[in-house]
Amino acid sequence: MVETDLLKGFNYERTLNEDPRTKTVWLLGHVSRKTGRDVAILIAEKTHFSPTELAGFVDRLRNVRTQVEGNDIYHWFFSEWDGETDMKITLIVPATETHIAKYTPQPVHYVLETPDMYNALVKPFIELEPLKRIQWVYNIVDGTAESERVVLRTSGEEGFVLLPDMKWDGVTMDHLYLLVIVNTRTVRSIRDLGSGHLPLLQSIRDRVPAFVSERYGVSPDELRLFCHYQPSYYHFHVHVTHLKYADAPRVMIGQSHLLDTIIDNIKHIRGDYYQVATLPSIIGEKHGIWKAMQKSKDAL
Amino acid sequence: MVETDLLKGFNYERTLNEDPRTKTVWLLGHVSRKTGRDVAILIAEKTHFSPTELAGFVDRLRNVRTQVEGNDIYHWFFSEWDGETDMKITLIVPATETHIAKYTPQPVHYVLETPDMYNALVKPFIELEPLKRIQWVYNIVDGTAESERVVLRTSGEEGFVLLPDMKWDGVTMDHLYLLVIVNTRTVRSIRDLGSGHLPLLQSIRDRVPAFVSERYGVSPDELRLFCHYQPSYYHFHVHVTHLKYADAPRVMIGQSHLLDTIIDNIKHIRGDYYQVATLPSIIGEKHGIWKAMQKSKDAL
Description:
Oligomer: homodimer
Pfam families (chains A, B): DcpS, DcpS_C
Helix content of chain A: 25-40%
Shape of chain A: globular
Family (chains A, B): Belongs to the HIT family.
Number of domains of chain A: 3
Active site (chains A, B): 237
Radius of gyration of chain A: 25 Å
Number of helices of chain A: 9
Largest sheet of chain A: 6 strands, antiparallel
Distance between the termini of chain A: 70 Å
Strand content of chain A: 25-35%
Largest interface: A-B, 106 and 105 residues
Main location (chains A, B): nucleus
Strand order of the largest sheet of chain A: 8-9-10-12-11-13
GO molecular function, one term (chains A, B): 5'-(N(7)-methyl 5'-triphosphoguanosine)-[mRNA] diphosphatase activity
């Protein structure tokens, strides 16, 4: 039996697994051979675009269908590509320099931030950031914006709001993504956390998984609660995602810190852990802190 | 101009970015309209298999080509799918129960491992593991196997070997993946690390990025050095990947620990950090430790 016949003889039984992100399926079946009936697993992965195809991209499109949700400069389509395989297309026109920058990969650097570097470079950078950049966060916490999206609100200095992240569709539980934003304005990042914040941190740890379990049916041991460092905005917040959402943005070590580890470090290791620890950062060259570091590194 | 004409009028200029894993490309171009020439960005993503297509999978294959690297039970093909879009196919036949288990997703649980849990459940589990399961690791360290794959070897109790991980193709630098395996047999996991291991850890930190930079041209600030916990085998080893390899296996917080953080914790925070800290683990139900935990949790 030649190998291509082996493939043609595959009889599908059931799907073992599939990954829509990578367009891969794992199928269980069997192949009958002279020697008997063999169990078989077939793994199929769609291939990437070849670079040479990209120049004449639109010439290879067939049967283009426009989606109704087109919005301003964003236009969505489905189309076949040469044959019958579908692809999803987004066209942004007119696109600005900001759009181009957003979709162009920027060089990133791994930086170990010592307490001295934090005090000399990062803290002044945070304090100089115009507060209007986080006005939208204050609006959520104060209840003057997005109040209908908040699913849980607790009051006081140890209070917080919980709301779905914009990236979550609200339906796919494997991609569950919520955000905890604290009421207090005095914690800009994990660097500011100390023993005095244990009631706040513990309140998030106790109440959020219980609430998520009740509201969305995702059990507490399927959740990952973590903080980014550097965060994308300097008002303390905690990301809540499903464990299976393994490619949630910046969930990798070197960019994130687990809430449980933060609590343990402060409670059992040292109350001033986040003031004395050297913390990793992965910083893009477009980030304001990278520019500040480049300017000031001679000063250190 | 109807929207489909807008897409047909896209003129390709250059590729901004592409992601072979998700089969997505970001193209820069322009569209000429009555109002002038607009910059445009086109984002195309191949769609996933639809579940209804999977039952009749092999009937939709066209122009199957066999790859030469077929090996024993593994057979590799390229094929078109209905039309002209390529896909890569792996057929495993005869497949065993172990293969089926490997490709079937298992439920996973987030567990906080206190020092007490480590001592009562995990340490005995590690000590009862048959050493023959890591004989292959000893063979590499002793030089009796895979010696031609080792790219760096240092001697003594603070020594280690460095070799490419089997998952790396050795060519794509964005997916660079190397493994450091230490000579000493006394460190089973990060739980065993203490002040006495700082020379070993520091030697890895100093020598590996410098070597990788010289040999592969990847600069030290583009690398991520980390340890898994729980590891997949209990002989201390360090993973070395490119920063851009953001979906390297289990590189997420809750499953990995950055070597720099390990060194900082032991050197500047507490020498016995890894004996007194509560460490997160994400454990699949098929893992021996999960079974041990289920059996013994009443004993705690």
